[in-house]
């Protein structure tokens, strides 16, 4: 296999990567060949191994790099690009199709479960706050005629509103930890074969 054949095969294997990352990887390999010189071309190809394996390693490293980037630096489009790269890395990993299907189904189930928990916490909080507001109005209504009942209803209403606000905060805060947990799970899944 010649350098040109190797580079064409590598480019074909990397065709689904974003253009900037693909060009950066191809540029690195071209420089590697240039540094070695034409006389060591066969030796370099043997050292690098199969182009498809090299492409799988590039995709895997790029996915890990994207997962480790600080969150504020990521744009929405870059987040979708990261998801695409992670999916490519999973497909490029040497695992069977049933295992890949299991991981995808498990991932979807986890996302749905997490979304359900978030929605349940948030909606419970909204309901508690709404009931608290209605109870505050009722408490003020009862104060002139039944002072003790009115004060009791006001106290209960403030408690309900407080619980509602706590549930809303818990729902919002859980998103951060759930995202970190899912990113960590994906990172462990991608690096499980690298430990030697």
UniProtKB/TrEMBL annotation:
Pfam families from the UniProt entry: HAAS
Record field: transmembrane: 83-111, 117-143, 150-179
Sorted UniProt keywords: Membrane, Transmembrane, Transmembrane helix
Protein name per its UniProtKB record: Putative membrane protein
Source organism: Hungatella effluvii
Organism phylogeny: Bacteria, Bacillati, Bacillota, Clostridia, Lachnospirales
């Amino acid at each position: 296999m010649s350098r040109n054949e190797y580079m064409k095969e590598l480019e074909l294997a990397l065709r689904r990567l974003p253009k900037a990352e693909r060009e950066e990887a191809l540029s690195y390999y071209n420089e590697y060949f240039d540094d070695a010189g034409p006389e060591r071309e066969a030796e370099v190809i043997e050292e690098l191994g199969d182009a498809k394996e090299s492409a799988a390693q590039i995709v895997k490293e790029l996915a890990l790099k994207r997962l480790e980037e600080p969150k504020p630096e990521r744009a929405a489009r870059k987040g979708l690009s990261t998801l695409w790269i992670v999916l490519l890395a999973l497909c490029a990993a040497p695992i069977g199709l049933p295992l890949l299907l299991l991981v995808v189904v498990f991932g979807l189930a986890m996302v749905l479960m997490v979304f359900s928990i978030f929605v349940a916490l948030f909606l419970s909080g909204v309901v508690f706050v709404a009931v608290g507001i209605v109870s505050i109005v009722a408490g003020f209504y009862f104060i002139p005629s039944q002072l003790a009942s009115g004060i009791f209803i006001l106290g209960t209403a403030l408690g309900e509103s407080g619980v509602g606000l706590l549930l809303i905060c818990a729902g919002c805060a859980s998103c951060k930890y759930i995202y970190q947990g899912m990113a960590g799970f994906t990172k462990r899944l991608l690096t499980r074969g690298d430990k030697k």
